[in-house]
């Protein structure tokens, strides 16, 4: 199965699409304005020590000096003397750093308002499966990996890569990862740290030694063990940066990197742009005529399967079974494409046959086996629903591209034209009782104006008789359906 990455780069946004067998499977989006500097490593210089606050200000080359608290200075850094590493505790800031001292620090909190960035000397480098800890020779394992057998396996694999340079923490995502995948991550992180050490010697104070990887670089780092056929980038500058990155850190991907210079926008290839737009719809059409309804809420995501126009060729039970089987592949793809995580409830069409239920469950497990993100299926409940979870790795595509609707304010629905008409009539009555007006002018959305001049005209006429005043309706093209203003004249 051929796999391609399409990378669309603009000054304000980077988008990456993963195409498998000509079909869009994953979309990643990063906006420059939301990247921040958390994770960046700097060679800073202590500009001021504040014993009263047990903190120091460090100049890292930004507009505002960054903040380093005594509790964020850890034993295995150059700030702490050897004799203090034996039994470390938070000491007086004056004993830990001095004004004019150069430090290697990492940003743990972005600058906010008048406050500068928050720093730590406990530098770490994350990758997909591991976190590298310079100067620490041990291996830690995420508590979320519950299987003792898997914990022991991963610890044994990773321990071979620990040396004087540092140790590792095994992340939850490493559960089930192969030895080669973990080894590639470890080699990548150690190579990265060696570059940081080189730059620490060469670079002047108040300079960045390492910038948290951008989206395109992170994707290439995470896909290094994937069988990629081609990586196309539509920006010459973006291509050159990625080429420099792959040559230095993941040379096995360099020959697959291509600059895309076609006249057609890169995301028009494989209908990618349209597929992204369709990923925001609630309804997903199936080829048979059935469809899915996908609703993402704060607590969970629900998926409902319907036969729709699919009537089948044999009997109802076969029609239902075939629709459910087709839906399993569509569901697996949509979870990846939309990056839906957390609790997911799937309401397959009710099946009387236990054999059909078993086969649908197996089909779903098979479809989800291609997902790089960890999933866990709990099977059918007594109500005939499938409960499953999918690890949250980043924001869903809907949360990245969309915001709360200003019209319905997140309700997911708006009042009908009829309801708005009656609300307007009630408001006119209320205002008439409270204030003395000669007549009224009401500004409304075009659809509401049409209704008050048509189907609801009799109600408006009765109100005019009741209050003894003229009411004039004016349609405003820019008004949304629930919006209106009652003006006294």
Automatic annotation (TrEMBL):
GO terms for biological process: rRNA processing; tRNA processing. It is found in: Cytoplasm. Its cofactor is Mg(2+). Keywords: Cytoplasm, Endonuclease, Hydrolase, Magnesium, Metal-binding, Nuclease, RNA-binding, rRNA processing, rRNA-binding, tRNA processing, tRNA-binding. Pfam families: RNase_E_G (PF10150), RNase_E_G_Thio (PF20833). One of its GO terms (molecular function) is rRNA binding. It comes from the Bacteria. InterPro entries: NA-bd_OB-fold (IPR012340), RNA-bd_AU-1/RNase_E/G (IPR019307), RNase_E/G (IPR004659), RNase_E_G_thioredoxin-like (IPR048583), S1_domain (IPR003029). GO terms for cellular component: cytoplasm. Residues 39-122 form the S1 motif domain. Belongs to the RNase E/G family. RNase G subfamily. This is Ribonuclease G. It comes from Photobacterium swingsii.
């Amino acid at each position: 199965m051929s796999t391609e990455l399409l990378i669309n780069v603009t000054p304000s946004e980077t988008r990456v699409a993963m195409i498998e067998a000509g079909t869009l499977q994953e979309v990643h989006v990063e906006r420059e304005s939301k990247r921040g500097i958390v994770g960046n490593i700097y060679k800073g210089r202590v500009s001021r020590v504040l014993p009263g606050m047990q903190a120091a200000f460090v100049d890292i080359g930004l507009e505002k000096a960054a903040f380093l608290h005594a509790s964020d200075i850890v034993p295995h850094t150059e700030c702490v003397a050897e004799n203090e590493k034996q039994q470390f505790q938070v000491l007086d800031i004056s004993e830990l750093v001095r004004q004019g001292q150069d430090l290697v620090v990492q940003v743990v909190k972005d600058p906010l308002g008048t406050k500068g960035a928050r720093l730590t000397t406990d530098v770490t480098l994350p990758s997909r499966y591991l976190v590298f800890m310079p100067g620490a020779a041990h291996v830690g394992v995420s508590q979320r990996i519950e299987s003792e057998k898997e914990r022991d396996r991963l610890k044994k694999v990773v321990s071979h890569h620990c040396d004087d340079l540092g140790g590792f923490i095994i992340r939850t995502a490493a559960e089930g990862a192969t030895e080669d995948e973990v080894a590639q991550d470890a080699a990548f992180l150690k190579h990265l740290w060696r570059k940081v050490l080189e730059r620490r010697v060469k670079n002047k104070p108040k300079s960045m030694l390492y910038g948290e990887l951008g989206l395109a670089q992170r994707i290439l780092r995470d896909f290094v063990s994937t069988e990629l056929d081609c990586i196309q980038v539509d920006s010459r500058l973006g291509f050159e940066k990625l080429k420099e990155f792959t040559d230095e850190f993941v040379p096995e991907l360099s020959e697959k990197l291509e600059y895309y210079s076609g006249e057609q926008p890169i995301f028009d290839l494989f209908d990618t742009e349209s597929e992204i737009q369709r990923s925001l719809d609630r309804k997903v059409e199936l080829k048979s005529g059935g469809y899915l309804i996908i609703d993402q809420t704060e607590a969970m995501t629900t998926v409902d399967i319907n036969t729709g126009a699919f009537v089948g060729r044999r009997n109802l039970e076969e029609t239902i079974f075939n629709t459910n089987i087709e839906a399993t592949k569509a569901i697996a793809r949509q979870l990846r494409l939309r990056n839906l995580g957390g609790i997911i409830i799937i309401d397959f069409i009710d099946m009387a046959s236990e054999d059909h239920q078993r086969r649908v469950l197996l089909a779903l497990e098979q479809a989800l086996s291609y997902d790089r993100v960890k999933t866990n299926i709990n099977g059918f409940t007594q109500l005939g629903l499938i409960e499953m979870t999918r690890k949250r790795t980043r924001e869903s595509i809907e949360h990245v591209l969309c915001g709360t609707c200003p019209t319905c304010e997140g309700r997911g629905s708006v009042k009908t034209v009829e309801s708005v008409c009656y609300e307007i009539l009630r408001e006119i009555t209320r205002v008439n009782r409270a204030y003395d007006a000669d007549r009224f002018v009401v500004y409304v959305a075009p659809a509401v104006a049409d209704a008050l001049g048509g189907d609801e005209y009799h109600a408006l006429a009765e109100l005019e008789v009741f209050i003894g005043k003229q009411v004039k309706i004016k349609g405003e093209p820019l008004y949304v359906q629930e919006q209106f203003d009652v003006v006294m004249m």
